[in-house]
Recover the amino acids of this structure.
């Protein structure tokens, strides 16, 4: 693809196809669906963090007026251990089934262990109180050091840890060990003039999606099941529901709703299999909607972590070695994103000697779920804080230190391959040249910078492109639209077809109407599904040229599709045939015109972002206020710049909240104490400045339009950018999140005591 390529539609800021429906309230979300004669489902959840289920008596609930069905784990099949073939994080179907409905033990406060379906929500809620459960309360563990202690209670007696050498002593509740890297870090440390080693901790945090989990499920007498739900992938919903119910995949049809946010938290199922089983038993449709408290207590947060990082550097600013040990909370079942954390944390740097060891640790908390670049922000927090300290000790500008070690084309990544075309250096240079970097600061103010990486994803996608009778085009895909993907797909279709954007409609089809597509996650949709749309459009153009050739009675090779019309080579006076002409003659030239493409997208474009954050710290209270923020990112090619900027701003806002305010707070009994947006403190508009954005474009040559993907990278640098800014304002290094006012004030006072 030529760097000088000029586009008609790519890079424009058109109105999104779903915009009017969403701003007028016409869009249909998960809780908006209804069917005649439907029931309402509710879930009974554990009041204990860890307990053996001795008995469950549902007879009184089932006898209650208006209750049509009650289920426990006895009403669901026993699923064998099998790794899931779809989804974002490592998932085992057996463990997923035990998370959806507890078997034998409850493993966290809020764990589902029964469900009812009744004629009204109120009757369903009252029926839950009639279910009698006898528990044997067991000791629980909420933090990783306690979970790994020799005396720790075991969450799973049948746990088979992976990644350990034969005969190795494995700490309790560790499900997996991973290791990656190259070279010998000890050699690097021996060659260093300065070595910094620090330990960091982060707490579980919520993705912050506004829409709670919701679904409506109808099971027919022939056992065909239709699901309407809000998710990040209805093919995932279909697969998970079929597996957990032990039925054929072909029996389940999943229809996507609009999604009111997900950020990785809706890449798995909680309600759909339960609603489906209740519908199968009752013979009526069943609707289930989580309360906000249920979302907090019973769905997956981003995990808590404990990370140790050691890095060495020469006096001239050249990094000599890096090493890290990661402990990532998986929650009650295996499957944290420790692998992604290990792969991404040192990825922005060229390192001859680097080694990362990671551990997946079980605790009595909800099973972790993905959250936007899952695992990467925590690793970046640790590495970028150490980089900042190295720059301070060596008296080198923090951006300059990063530039001297920045990954380039040919750099070997810590996770194995050598980079191809990447924009790490260009992103840092854009950050350094931004006026924000040299703007003056006032008293108690500080500035921090940080660099972040995400590898982005390809995976499987399908798309279709139909030419309508009036010459308009319909783009059909199988990915829920979270960040404006309808617009980006329509823009690529318009560009490829050479027609007006207004002539392209974009639609999301259900699982019975389009080929398989992986989830909307990993910043993959504009890249991978966009690639499928382009292939489908090229298929349509080929057919259009063949139709024109038939009309002109010439060889198809002589016809070219140029600027939205078929032209005959060598005969400039021949009147071209446009899309409307060919659509209207379709019946006489072979029938309807449509293109299809299904693929596994190759050639993902790895991406980098660099952020600047200015803060002001109140030395008397410890309150931190973000007063200016700039995010720079290589998008490859910004298909729709407004949505790229929105992704960058959203990631920065979430990362700022993660750094300063957000955490799951548990009491000594393992019960979450802040399960509401009133007590779980997320930043709102008044907490943040306008976030400035700079889009860098280093096109990915393996995508038809240079796309890299943008959704994950923006949440990786904010935490260390904020933390480094707080250090610059206070002179205090902080290693534990969040930087709440009491924690910041304690650091300031401790530093003052040491100075005294």
């Amino acid at each position: 693809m030529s760097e000088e390529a000029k586009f008609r539609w790519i890079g424009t800021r058109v109105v999104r196809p779903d915009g009017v429906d969403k701003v007028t309230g016409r869009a249909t979300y998960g809780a908006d669906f209804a069917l005649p004669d439907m029931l309402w489902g509710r879930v009974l959840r554990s009041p204990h963090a860890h307990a053996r289920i001795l008995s469950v008596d549902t007879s009184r609930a089932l006898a209650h007026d208006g209750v049509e069905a009650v289920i426990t784990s006895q009403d669901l099949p026993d699923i064998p251990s099998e790794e899931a073939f779809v989804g974002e994080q490592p998932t085992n179907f057996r463990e997923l089934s035990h998370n959806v409905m507890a078997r034998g033990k409850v493993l966290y406060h809020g764990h589902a262990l029964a469900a009812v379906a009744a004629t009204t929500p109120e009757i369903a809620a009252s029926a839950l109180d009639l279910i009698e459960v006898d528990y044997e309360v067991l000791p629980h563990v909420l933090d990783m050091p306690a979970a790994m202690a020799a005396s720790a209670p075991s969450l799973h007696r049948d746990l088979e840890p992976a990644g350990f050498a034969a005969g190795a002593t494995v700490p309790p509740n560790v499900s997996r060990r991973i290791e990656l890297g190259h070279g010998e870090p000890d050699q690097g440390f021996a060659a260093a003039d300065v070595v910094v080693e620090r330990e960091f901790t982060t707490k579980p945090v919520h993705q912050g999606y506004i829409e709670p989990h919701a679904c409506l499920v109808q099971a027919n007498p022939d056992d065909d099941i239709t699901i309407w739900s809000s998710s990040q992938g209805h093919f995932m919903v279909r697969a998970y529901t079929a597996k957990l119910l032990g039925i054929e995949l072909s029996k389940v049809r999943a229809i996507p709703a609009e999604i009111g946010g997900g950020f990785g938290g809706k890449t798995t199922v909680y309600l759909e299999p339960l609603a489906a089983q209740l519908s199968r038993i009752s013979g009526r449709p069943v609707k289930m909607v989580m309360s906000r408290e249920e979302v907090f207590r019973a769905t997956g947060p981003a995990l808590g972590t404990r990370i140790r990082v050691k890095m060495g550097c020469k006096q001239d600013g050249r990094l000599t070695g890096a090493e890290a040990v990661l402990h990532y909370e998986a929650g009650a079942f295996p499957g944290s994103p420790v692998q992604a954390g290990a792969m991404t944390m040192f990825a922005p740097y060229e390192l001859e000697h680097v080694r990362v060891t990671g551990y997946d640790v079980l605790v009595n908390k909800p099973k972790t779920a993905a959250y936007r670049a899952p695992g990467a922000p925590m690793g970046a927090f640790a590495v970028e804080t150490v980089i900042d300290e190295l720059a301070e000790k060596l008296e080198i500008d923090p951006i300059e230190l990063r530039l001297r070690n920045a990954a380039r084309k040919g750099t070997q990544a810590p996770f194995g391959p050598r980079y191809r075309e990447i924009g790490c250096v260009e992103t840092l240079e854009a950050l350094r040249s931004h006026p924000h970097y040299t703007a003056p600061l006032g008293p108690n103010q500080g500035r921090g910078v940080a660099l972040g990486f995400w590898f982005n994803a390809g995976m499987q996608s399908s798309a279709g492109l139909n030419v309508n009778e009036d010459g308009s085009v319909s783009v059909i895909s199988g990915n829920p639209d979270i960040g404006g993907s309808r617009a980006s797909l329509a823009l690529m279709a318009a560009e490829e077809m050479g027609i007006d954007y207004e002539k392209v409609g974009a639609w999301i089809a259900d699982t019975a109407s389009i080929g398989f597509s992986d989830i909307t996650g990993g910043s993959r949709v504009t890249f991978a599904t966009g690639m499928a749309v382009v292939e489908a459009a090229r298929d349509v153009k080929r057919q259009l040229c063949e139709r024109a050739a038939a009309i002109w009675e010439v060889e198809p090779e002589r016809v070219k599709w140029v600027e939205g019309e078929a032209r005959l080579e060598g005969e400039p006076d021949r009147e071209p045939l446009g899309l409307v002409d060919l659509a209207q003659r379709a019946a006489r030239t072979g029938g309807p015109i449509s293109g299809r493409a299904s693929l596994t997208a190759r050639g993902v474009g790895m991406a980098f972002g660099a952020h600047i954050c200015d803060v002001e710290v109140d030395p008397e209270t410890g309150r931190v206020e973000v007063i200016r923020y700039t995010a720079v990112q290589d998008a490859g090619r910004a298909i729709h710049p407004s949505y790229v900027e929105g992704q960058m701003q959203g990631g920065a806002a979430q990362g700022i909240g993660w750094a300063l305010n957000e955490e799951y707070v548990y009491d000594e009994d393992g019960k979450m104490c802040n399960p509401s947006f009133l007590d779980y403190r997320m930043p709102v508009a008044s907490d943040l400045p306008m976030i400035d954005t700079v889009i860098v474009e280093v096109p990915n040559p393996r995508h038809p339009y240079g796309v890299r993907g943008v959704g994950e990278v923006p949440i990786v640098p904010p935490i260390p950018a904020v933390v480094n800014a707080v250090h610059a304002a206070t002179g205090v290094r902080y290693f534990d999140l969040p930087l709440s006012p009491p924690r910041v004030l304690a650091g300031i006072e401790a530093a003052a005591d040491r100075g005294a």
Remarks:
- DSSP finds 20 helices and 26 strands in the chain.
- The domain at 305-456+604-755 is CATH 3.30.365.10 (Aldehyde Oxidoreductase; domain 4).
- The first helix runs from residue 19 to 24.
